[in-house]
Amino acid sequence: MAHQVLSKDMAALVEAMRLAIHYCRTTLHHDYTKSMLAAAHVLAMDAKNLLDVVDCIRERHPHIDWKSALQLDEEPQTSSPIPQNLDSQNQVLNPPLTP
């Protein structure tokens, strides 16, 4: 549930930022900037509320070792990951093959 709220708020912030950039050289710039700041504030408050819930749960269960619970018990990978290049649109491109 929390990831849906944060994802929706992040999408709203991205859209507000896109509009603010699009109208940056017009008289509407200040209105879109205010909208972007309002969306950023909503996202920040939701993130703070999520962290408050996590802190509350940690206080209720002080006997749990959270750090060890979050560590992965996976075996190390033997193959090295293939590096990826990103273009300006953040789309993953395959690296060029070298002989």
Keywords:
single chain, 99 residues, Four Helix Bundle (Hemerythrin (Met), subunit A), 4% strand, Focal_adhesion_kin_target_dom
Q: What layout of secondary structure does this protein have?
A:
Blueprint: H1 2-22, H2 29-60, H3 66-70, E1 85-86, E2 92-93
Antiparallel strand pairs: 1-2
Helix pairs in contact: 1-2
**CATH topology (level 3) name of the domain at 1-62:** Four Helix Bundle (Hemerythrin (Met), subunit A)
Query: What is the residue-mean pLDDT, rounded to a whole number?
Result: 81
Overall, the morphology is elongated
CATH class of the domain at 1-62: Mainly Alpha
Number of helices: 3
**Overall number of strands:** 2
Order of helices and strands: HHHEE
Structural class: mainly alpha
The CATH superfamily name of the domain at 1-62 is Nucleotidyltransferases  domain 2
